[in-house]
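At this stage, I wrote out one protein, both as residues and as discrete backbone shape codes, and that material follows here.
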Amino acid sequence: MLLKKSVKNSLFAVLLGACAAAAQADGFDQMRLRWEARLAGDPGASQDDADVRATKRSVAAAAQRYLVTMDGDVNATALWSDAADWNNPNGIVASATVTSNYARIETMAMAYAQQGTPLYRSAALRSAILHGLEWMDARHYHARAAPYGNWWDWQIGVPLRLVNVLTLMNSEIAPALLSRCLAAIDRFVPDPGWRALPDGALDKTAETGANRLDKALVVALRGVLGRSARHVKAGRDAISQTLVPVSAGDGFYADGSFVQHAHVAYTGSYGLVALDDYAKLIYLFSRSDWPIGDALLASVFRSARETYAPWIFDGAMADAVRGRRISSRLQSDHEAGRRAIAAIASLAQAAPPGDAAWMKAAVKGWIERDMAFGSNYLGSPTGVGAVLSVYDLHTLKAVMADPATVGAAEEQGVRIFASMDRVLQRGPGFGATLSMFSDRISAFEFGNGEHARSWWNGIGMLNLYNADQTQYDANFWPTVDAMRLPGTTTDRSGTGLPKAWNFYANRASWVGGAQINGRHASIGMAFDLRGVTGSDLQGKKSWFMFGDKIVATGSDISSGGAAPVETIVENRKLNFEASNPLTVNGELQPLALGAPVTLADVRWAHLAGSVPGAGIGYYFPQAQAVTSLRESRTDRWQAINGFESPDPVHNAFLSLAIGHGIRPQGQGYIYVLLPGASAAATAAYAAHPTIELLANDGNASAVHDKLLGLTGINFWNPGMVRLDGAPYVGSDSAAAVVLQEQDGKLTLGVADPTQHNMGEITIEVHRRGARLVQADPAITVIRLAPTVLFKAKVGATAGRSLNVTLAFDPDLPEPVR
């Protein structure tokens, strides 16, 4: 019997819908199984690996502890007696307890799902996990719960762990319990793009950066578990906003900066969470029914190269961009670096050949050079720091075993991240990072009881990375004198606990610099502490980064306070015996710990490193008094982070300082850092220096390197700088300038460090040019003779360097293009 056409069409539509639903269900299952494989370790991968087995044993051991200590009584007041702070409804610790309970259940679920351990598919463990989920759902995290404490626990901390537990235990969870758990997630994370209010309504606060990506992962996995395409798409679509370059507030900037909490440089902390989330989200959506677009993927791969890779020094994520995280004992610079490296290795699996090649080469180079974990970077867990997941182990080992991948060396040069007031320099065998603050970027961040002695971390701190890879590890941060950090000019102001989440702004806006050829830079910072420590200490500081050396100058240093002011040339952690030799003007100094010693007429000094290649030379062009202090310091991690250990820790330090006295007015300094130099090389440099100080006052700071033909100038105000007694470079505005005369050419970089000049900067160079070789589009050359005059349109450049190159010789060949 033939069906009517309308009936046939209706039946066809129903069949199509059923097929589509089945295909969609298959898509959900594929994503869930893929995520389960990443969490527990792909069962198809080789399990016959000592490190993989050790990692699984570590997870199983933790799960066993939680299993035997869990209270299985349904009427119990807590699952674990040591994680039961439910009675502080206005405190952050109480809400963190909710997260920590789910974290323990997550560890138990991981052990349950990982093959090769005694707890794999354990009936007792299964019952305990389900009891934990039911107990938490009934009492603390459900669709009717009233949140308290830190919003993060309710909207990110708990749901991230809960979706993982539900994934790992998917076949064991009753539909009713699954439904309640998903309803709780919907209550606290209704939309990944927006913060939720306590009543569940959406706030007007849009989520950004790492927080938005965390929520995108939560909502996408909630969609997978609940077979909701709407949620999966919402999670995927929330990603794109995080990659749109911003010019203020949270997010990625055009120069590679990453800012979170509106005014904190956070590449290596919140930014690291974002990088990890990108890797996870790309993994989750790869080969799914809801793929991430190619343009979005390209943006992620680009940020991996431009935002993250520059800050990794021999496997360590620089502390300059880790904010509060430096106060966490188990989150060292190398632990953070390893996490970033694992994320980049994961991204390489989904990247096109060109991006994958540089990622794998970088990863291999970092791992080969990183000795902070001993001789086996991927080895067995030591109990200190995070354990690499089974997925990460497989991914990293595949890179290391690939004979076609050659480890990449550290790239030398200078990068200015003007949008977050950070600069990095790489030279032969060393890396340096500079942390500054402005009217855009805070001096530091304190919050959640973390980073309690952070007053001076962003006020000119200069961190030097070299062969001593554990310099900033091994209890450095709780034991270093936080009021005397290297590079800072300090009066030791800043008492008590800082105000949580406060924007500690610089009342001066001249902060930034200019660079040429990606290799040389002129960096400066005018500083005013009234908005930070309350002190009236002010001054101007410069760092001229010239290849294998850093020239540091200070000028206009003034204070009306009664505290003595000093510039900290160095404050370096010594070896265990505190026996690193210090040589001053050719004489070895005593090794005894004790009181500070002021040494007169110091021309040069050298501090031997704790390992070969870690020595540092110091040259003082003006032969001045320098105070040396070799001291032992004891303190507690808890003193800088309320959640950390109260046990005492110890270190010895050697500091060098230039004193400015009490109530200095218009004082200055100059010294030269020679990273990696031996004592003999430092002495030789002091005997035949190449650095000449051209200016150092309230109008300009300038130095000239005769060997390189380099000149760095920071025009604090309009003015002219002279060289060899004659006018050389003038500017009609505040500006950072660096120029080099070499091989018949003049190369110059100029920038507006204030980022407030919406017009132009006019630069005059007292040289005669023959022709223009190349120039930034924002530069207009007015004339080449009798002096070179040009205008740089700096409005809306966000502190970016504008470069121009001129030829002196008209017969000089055109550059190869």
Notes: Residues 5-40 form the longest helix (36 residues). The two ends are 77 Å apart (CA to CA).
